[in-house]
Amino acid sequence: MSTDRPNILILMTDQQRADHLSCAGHPVLQTPNMDRIANEGMRFSQCCTCSPICMPARASFISGLYPHNHHMWHNSGSLPENEESLFRRLQDAGYRTAHIGKSHYYPHAGDHLKDHEPYMHARGFDDIHETTGPWATCSTDSYMTDHWADLGLLDAFRDDYGKRRQHDGIAVWPSPLPEEEFLDSYIGRTAKEYLQEYDDDRPFCTFVGFGGPHEPWDAPGRYATMYDPAQMPEPIEPTDPNPWVPGDLVSARKRARHEGLTPEVIAALRANYAGKVSLLDDWFGEIFGVLDDRGLADNTLVVFWSDHGEMAGDHQCLHKSLFYESSVMVPLMFRWPGHIDAGAMRENVTTTVDIPATILDLVGVDAGNRSQGKSLQPLMEERLADHREVVFSEICPAKFGHIMARTDGWKYVMSARGDSVWLGDLTSDPEELNNLIGHPAYEELEAGMRPEPGHGDHRLQAPQMAPGVLVVVGPGVPVVDADRVLRQVRSLHLVEGLVDPPQILRVSGGAVREDAGDDDLGHAVIDAGRSRLGVPAVADSGRLRRV
Q1: Is the pTM value of this prediction over 0.70?
Q2: What is the pLDDT along the chain (547 residues), one digit of tens a residue?
């Protein structure tokens, strides 16, 4: 294999909390192989997902864009097949790319994943052995379900999941599958065999997407009993709302709670979740063993991350799609002996959008001017290097959308309509028990935390749109008055009102300007339903005129 550039191994788990690592201080869970990446490389302890939802977070990873730019807000849709991607850039640089396991770059909708291999090839993968995640395996086939059917296991798996659906997300019992045929065992074994058999002059970039520890709570065999529920850390209990918090915010927080979560259920599902993490850790070890045996470990960049966390009973909530730390903070580690300091940790706030830019930077490949990620390599070289003052996380647009801004000490959440939802002091209140919205002593801080546009000296600045994107606003489209359009685009607010005449705005180099030429009018490709303006599409751009 060529030694001009390192091999790349990307290990991704699904729905793993940042604190579920023994190197992160978990008092019970043992993850020696995940810890190896931290001990021989660098761990970023404050990495925040750009979206606590599966497909938006994964679309950001492959594209290097925030959800408000790639427009995937839910577990549906897909990015254009010929759009630039991390893996296409690596292919162009001479890598042989492989995808093994779960991708979720497109909907899993009841067909066979092999039918989507032309799409995956177009996204930048040479070799593909794709699976679904746990729940989608009930209705969507893959090479894995073909294998299970041959072994007579598929019906037992799907019957078991049918029973779990009747328990409102809190079914906790072992999988009917043997350990060696469990979903993540299949993925880990496939990745191990691929690397054992790899024989190409090109360096490899192998992405391994595990399906766990994503619920349901179905750890197999010995992993189901590996941890004692009585020994698991207690969840963060919900508290009575502070008297200054507006009533509608109090009601919204209560609606997010899962009323079926008893202390016994939480303890049981936490122990099962930990078992699934340990199963993953064992497969990390098997894969690392191949690198060691083949003499590839020192020339392979290893990246480990997860798309989002898991509430696991904290605040009486389950799963993700919330901006609590349990849901948005994820593991992030890089290992490359001789190039990344061993046993180092950085506490700077980072975002999963930075991962593709960092991978490309480390192996000497240009990320392009479209990427919104910021390489972490300067932080790897210097502890005090500037990186980001704030990171953002986003949940679906329109009236139900929310935007989170997080610094190293504060968290602010704003609704799509521009209303303040949460203000928290992460230093004095790390369990996020006290919402400071409405507290008279924090009104000035709340105003300062809002990602207001047009003020370079503001504490927080919202992520800007990608260069070259056009936003079209037509008559009758619900936006604010013309004077605020630029500000709203920059701040990512969703807005109301009418504007007339129509306008066209060009984003150039991250800054919005109003001088788009007539020749640009035919290139108005961002539509309202898919942009941060959240308004209906304006298809007829032929007679649009400039402001």
Answers
A1: yes
A2: 445 799 999 999 999 999 999 999 999 999 999 999 999 999 999 999 999 998 899 999 999 999 888 888 877 778 888 888 999 999 999 999 999 999 988 878 788 999 999 999 999 999 999 999 898 899 999 999 999 999 999 999 999 999 999 887 789 999 999 999 999 999 999 999 999 999 999 999 999 999 999 999 999 999 999 999 999 999 998 887 777 777 667 667 777 777 788 999 999 999 999 999 999 999 999 999 999 999 999 999 999 999 999 999 998 889 988 999 999 999 999 999 999 999 999 999 999 999 999 999 999 999 988 888 999 999 999 877 678 888 999 987 555 678 889 988 999 988 877 788 888 899 999 999 988 888 888 887 777 776 544 223 223 333 333 333 333 333 333 332 333 333 333 333 222 222 333 333 433 333 333 333 333 222 222 322 233 333 222 222 222 222 2
Rounded Cα distance, 98 and 87, in Å: 9
3-state secondary structure 45-58: EEEECCCCCHHHHH
Residue with tokens 């770059």: 105
33-38 long-range contacts (CB < 8 A, ≥24 apart) are 33/281, 33/282, 33/284, 33/285, 33/288, 34/280, 34/281, 34/284, 34/304, 34/331, 34/333, 36/284, 36/285, 36/288, 36/335, 37/284, 37/302, 37/304, 37/333, 37/334, 37/335, 38/333, 38/343, 38/345
